[in-house]
Design a protein that fits this description.
By secondary structure, this protein is α+β, with helices and mostly antiparallel strands. Helix 5 links the parallel strand 3 and strand 4. Helices cover 40% and strands 20% of the residues. Helix 2 packs across helix 14, helix 3 packs antiparallel against helix 4 and helix 3 packs antiparallel against helix 5. The structure holds zinc ion.
């Protein structure tokens, strides 16, 4: 069912006095989005049931949890009459055809996987928002000029394969070499095998043409819950993204010292655990230094432990294991941090007679938000009467993979209490509908 273009109404609005026209249009957009309230609530409930894994949800990357979420969203989109496609990485594309299908398309998307025992809205909110926005466009009688595709992206949560943006980078042809042979940390099976399990064609990811050609994309927009409490603190339902941090990561780093007797004097020790502790405190001091200068960055040691096979009350630890994620919003800052981490390591190695083995280094580029999209989203939110703040993303998002390919990118954050990557993560449906309204308003402006 193709609704008629809304050209006549839009023209009529243009002839009105601007403020009244904008206000009237905003009210219509808001009403059109709010009419999808039950649809959104129902889809979120279904996704929660599909991923249920007490506590919270587990939509495991390229596993049954993620697969069910893809099937649920595809079924909802099919019921809406959207065109359904999947690429060799098993990403899901749900498209509302535009008036000119040869125009560069708009992609709205986010991921449908989650961390183990995560919350229901991390990722999924962006996909549901895309479907809500398309329903709203139809209610407004607005057929977009160009195709609007809602993308259910695979494998964003790098906890499973320890590789960033697997789904989006596969679609864009930028998945790093060797990624398909990486093993999932719990199953021990390769990414290649997992993709095939989910109906994908891993061989074609590397050898076939890329499914999404960046030069054929008008823009990529992602709505995502905020994963820090800034919007809660500011009392705003929606944040307009200013950028996504880049990072460098060491998923499997270790420190080699010497296992020794508990009575060994300090001067003879090569204590890997104390070296790890010194490293952690030095990183925290480095972060405090950047904080004091107002430079946004973060470093996280997600894993930090002695060797369980050998550690014990009476043994000086000879091995220590950790992971490290360092992120910043500026490539220059990131490069500087890289050097400072290396310098800290060199100092500790010399002082304590230990060796750091950093293992494989993973990198993700900084994801800059397009200035025009950001300004348009801010204007749109103001017209809708929705309070916003500008917000640097604390987390990594697929939108960064699109930005890295030169695709214009925009981000909308929705207030979320109780933090993220946990079962207590919470987003009010009203706040979600506010975010979806900002998204819809932007789509309407692109269609005029
Ligand atoms: Zn996410």
């Amino acid at each position: 069912m193709q609704p008629a273009p809304q050209t006549a109404n839009v023209k009529a609005m243009d002839e009105m006095e601007p403020t009244r026209a904008v206000v009237a249009q905003a009210a219509r957009i808001r009403a059109a989005v709010i009419a999808s309230r039950e649809f959104a609530a129902g889809l979120f409930d279904q996704l929660r049931r599909d991923g249920h894994d007490d506590p919270g949800v587990s939509r495991d990357t390229y596993g049954p949890g993620e697969q069910r979420a893809h099937e649920t969203c595809a079924a909802a989109a099919a019921a809406m009459g959207l065109t359904i496609e999947r690429d060799p990485a098993a990403n899901l594309y749900m498209t509302l055809p535009g008036l000119d299908t040869k125009e560069k398309r708009i992609v709205i998307g986010s991921h449908l996987d989650s961390v183990p025992h995560g919350g229901n809205f991390d990722g999924a909110a962006g996909v549901v928002a895309g479907l809500v926005a398309i329903q709203a466009l139809r209610r407004l009688g607005c057929t977009p000029r160009r195709d609007v595709t809602v993308m259910g992206i695979r494998a964003e949560e790098s906890i499973w394969f320890q590789v960033s943006y697997i789904g989006s980078r596969s679609a864009l042809g930028t998945l790093p070499d060797g990624s398909l042979d990486v093993r999932r940390i719990d199953t021990g099976r390769t990414l290649r095998e997992h993709i095939a399990d989910c109906g994908g064609d891993p061989a074609r990811i590397r050898t076939g043409p890329r499914y999404l050609d960046p030069s054929h994309l008008h823009a990529f927009l992602e709505l995502h819950i905020e994963q820090a409490p800034s919007l809660v603190e500011a009392g705003c339902p929606v944040g307009i993204g200013t950028g996504i941090p880049g990072n460098f990561r060491y998923p499997e780093a270790s420190i080699e010292g010497s296992n020794d007797h508990v009575g060994l004097p300090r001067r003879f020790r090569r204590d890997a655990a104390l070296a790890g502790a010194e490293f952690a405190m030095a990183l925290d001091a480095m972060w405090a230094d950047y904080d004091a200068r107002g430079v946004a960055m973060a470093c996280t040691i997600g894993r930090f432990h002695t060797d369980a096979k050998q550690h014990g009350l009476t043994i000086v630890p000879g091995a220590f294991h950790f992971s490290l994620d360092v992120r910043a919003y500026d490539e220059t800052v990131l490069a500087e941090l890289d050097q400072r981490v290396d310098a800290i390591i060199a100092t500790i190695e010399q002082r304590r007679g230990v060796r750091f083995h950093l293992g494989t280094k993973a990198r993700a580029a900084v994801g800059p938000v397009d200035a025009d999209i950001r300004a348009a989203l801010t204007r749109g939110a103001a017209a809708l009467g929705i309070n916003t703040i500008d917000l640097g993303s604390p987390a990594s998002h697929d939108a960064a993979a699109f930005a890295a390919c030169g695709v214009k990118m925009g981000l909308i954050f929705v207030r979320n209490t109780n933090g993220s990557h946990n079962a207590a993560e919470a987003m009010a449906l009203e706040d979600f509908l506010d975010g979806a309204s900002v998204l819809t308003e932007w789509l309407v402006t692109q269609s005029i």
